[in-house]
Amino acid sequence: MNALHLTLASASPRRRDLIARLGVTPDAVKPADIDETPAPAERPRDYALRMGREKALAISGAMDAPGFVLAGDTVVAAGRRILPKTESEDEARACLKLLSGRRHVVLSSVVLCAPDGSMRERLSENTVRFKSLSHEEIASYLASDEWRGKAGGYAIQGAAEGLIQWIRGSHSGVMGLPLYETRTLLKSAGFAIA
Questions:
Q1: Other beta carbons less than 10 A from residue 83's beta carbon
Q2: What is the C-alpha separation between 15 and 87, in angstroms, rounded?
Q3: pLDDT (tens digit, 9 = 90+) per residue, 25-72?
């Protein structure tokens, strides 16, 4: 049993579901309200780590009592290009057309602020390859509305999984919270976890 609380700095129900697979239930869920605009010429890897850090620090700095804060961010990148968290159907269509028939990288950072003020971080780097998508497949996926708010315009845990030829890396990392890395961070910080 942990005497100190764990706050999950994320609005994502997917991250709550994933952390539950480790047998962990956050005591609080507080999404961080930060500017998520990539810096000019910022590389995807650097951006993913920076976003995780900034989210963790934003929530950690607003805590009333000491506790653990877990944050993360997922970035889909085609080469050095950071793809958006799609908010419009046109944006999602453009991402899917770009990713069609090619591989891309999904970077998921996980950052833990401990009660003693220390910060630990890990980055899960994964490669995903979509099949060549037909206009009908793209239209069908867009009709599902799963793309809304998703990095790169898709969610691997939904219908898009049937369009992916292969992944190299962590399935949970592509979903948004790499479980191996998360478990390692929690254990190294002294959080009681099986």
A1: 22
A2: 19
A3: 999 999 999 999 999 999 999 999 999 999 999 999 888 788 999 999
Q: Please check whether residue 76 is in contact with residue 98, taking contact to mean a CB–CB distance below 8 angstroms.
A: no
Q: 179 and 18 in contact (C-beta within 8 Å)?
A: yes
- Which residues does the annotation mark as catalytic? 73
Give the 3-state DSSP-derived string for the chain, with helices as H, strands as E and coil as C.
CCCCEEEECCCCHHHHHHHHCCCCCCCEECCCCCCCCCCCCCCHHHHHHHHHHHHHHHHHCCCCCCEEEEEEEEEEEECCEECCECCCHHHHHHHHHHHCCCEEEEEEEEEEECCCCCEEEEEEEEEEEECCCCHHHHHHHHHHCCCCCCECCCCCCCHHHHHEEEEECCHHHHHCCCHHHHHHHHHHCCCCCC
Sequence-ordered list of residues with C-beta below 8 angstroms from that of 59, at least 6 positions apart, any chain = 7, 9, 30, 32, 69, 71, 113
Comparing CA positions, the residue from 77, 76, 36 lying closest to residue 54 is 36
Instruction: Please state, in angstroms and rounded to a whole number, the distance separating the CA atoms of residues 119 and 148.
Output: 31
Tokens of residue 102, six digits: 């090619």
